[in-house]
Amino acid sequence: MAERLVVEHVSKVYPGGNHALRGPTFTVDPGTFMVLLGPSGSGKTTLLRTIAGIERLTSGRLVIGDVVVADGRVHLPPERRDLAMVFQDYALWPHLSAQDNVAFALKRHRVGRHDARRHAMGMLDRVGLSHLADRFPVQLSGGEQQRVALARALVGDTGLLLCDEPLSNLDADLRERMRVEISSLVREAGATTIYITHDQLEAFALADQVGVLQDGVLVQLGTPEDIYATPATLFVARFTGLAGELEVTVVGEGKITGHVSVQPVGIDGARPIEARVGEGTGAGAGAAPDGPLLLAIRPTAVRLCAAESEAANLVGSVTDTAFRGRHYELVVDLAGGRRLTGVLSERRVPRGTPVGIELDAAGCILFAEPEPGPPGAAPEDAEPGRRGGAPAGGAPQANGAASATRGTERIQ
Ligand SMILES: Nc1ncnc2c1ncn2[C@@H]1O[C@H](COP(=O)(O)OP(=O)(O)OP(=O)(O)O)[C@@H](O)[C@H]1O
Ligand SMILES: [Mg+2]
Fold first, then answer.
1. For residue 14, what are the domain limits?
2. Phi, psi (degrees; rounded to nearest 5) at 301
3. Which residues, chain by chain, have CB under 5 Å from ion ligand 2?
């Protein structure tokens, strides 16, 4: 039965003083597929291993279902936490066949050997591997081994499934097929899932909820759509895909509420751009902030037009054109040394062609420059309730009420 997971102010300091987790707090509802996204070293594996009970937390609390599995005093071992794990390196028993690897997972459920092997065969069938049930791991491909690992994780009907980059060792084509399989198998099983990746596309494709980790801090939690539309910080915006960034100054109010009109700095031929005031500007929702700002541009906001078009906010010239099957992806260099990547085009545009760029306000988000409030400082030191009005490089950002109303939770 799918369990609820509650993670409260979890902190992990490794021996030697490395502070890998700085207070992530969130709840995962039963049956939810949550993806933890973050760059290398951001604490993803540490958080997963802490939830699993492989690592002890330094402070905080973890609850699975109705059971407090870890806090300052309690530490239940992994086998008493009703969870299963899938690892990057499959971690199958080398001396057991595929079927016995899966059946082994039922041992702690006190299922008889015959029944365990029967259930295991059924599960292997669901992952499309019953014909290879007698093979040993060494006789299976990487993708097949990962399917066995998935079957092993799902066979016990565990309440919580933890996956640590299970697809990262597979080639691109197999990765995509396995992603679809994992998504459908896990949802069919109804398990609550925590899935780690550093791949934004994989995260968005799989998740009901995405949590973004930066230096051990959960900087944003929301649906993929929330995070794409309203990234809480410049870091989140960058990590979830930008076509480019421009230095800009505010030149007036925008036509849409909560927007301003900005002018790129040092780019010849640029016209004012309608931009949404992101929460990372330190100015409060909708206010026109002072000082140098950075315009973060989502690839979805960029439309190609003629260089001489009235609609063009920017003009530049094509420096690369890549055929992607359905479309072309262009790199456009603007005057002043700025560059936009991932610009979609239906047709091939030869290198050197002058082009215009029309920008859609929905994907143009303003942030302060440099980014305020890197979560490097311990969140427990943060002043509760303080708004993100800190000077650049200042204190951690406080939880923004504005973000919560959009269904995106900002975490301190
Ligand atoms: N056993 C350990 N002892 C000390 N420090 C550790 C240990 N394991 C991890 N760390 C450190 O904790 C931080 C978080 O590591 P973690 O493995 O959780 O990152 P990650 O987000 O999973 O990264 P990756 O994407 O590379 O797998 C890193 O700075 C790492 O060096
Ligand atoms: Mg890791």
1. 5-229
2. -85, -10
3. 45
Q: For the sheet containing 83-86, what is the strand order?
A: 83-86, 160-164, 192-197, 33-37, 209-214, 217-222
Measured from the alpha carbon of residue 43, the closest ligand is: 1
Q: What is the pLDDT of residues 226-272, one digit of tens each?
A: 999 999 999 999 999 999 999 999 998 889 888 999 999 988 889 99
Beta strands in 242-396 (DSSP E): 244-253, 259-264, 273-277, 293-297, 302-305, 314-323, 328-334, 339-345, 354-359, 364-368
Q: What is the pLDDT of residue 107?
A: 78
DSSP track, 88-106: TT----TTS-HHHHHHHTT
Whose alpha carbon is nearest atom 24 of ligand 1?
A: 40
70: nearest Cα among 158, 17, 11: 11
How does DSSP classify residue 173? H
- Structure token pair of residue 25: 């707090």
CATH number at residue 90: 3.40.50.300
CA of 68 to the centre of ligand 2 (A): 25
Instruction: Tell whether 405 is covered by a domain.
Output: no
Which are the contacts of 380, defined by CB distance < 8 A and separation ≥ 6?
9, 11, 22, 23
Mutate to test the pocket of ligand 1, among 11, 13, 14, 47 (most ligand atoms within 8 A of CB): 14
User: Is 99 inside a domain boundary?
Assistant: yes
pLDDT at position 280 is 64
User: Model confidence over 344-382: pLDDT tens digits?
Assistant: 999 999 999 999 999 999 999 999 866 444 444 433 333
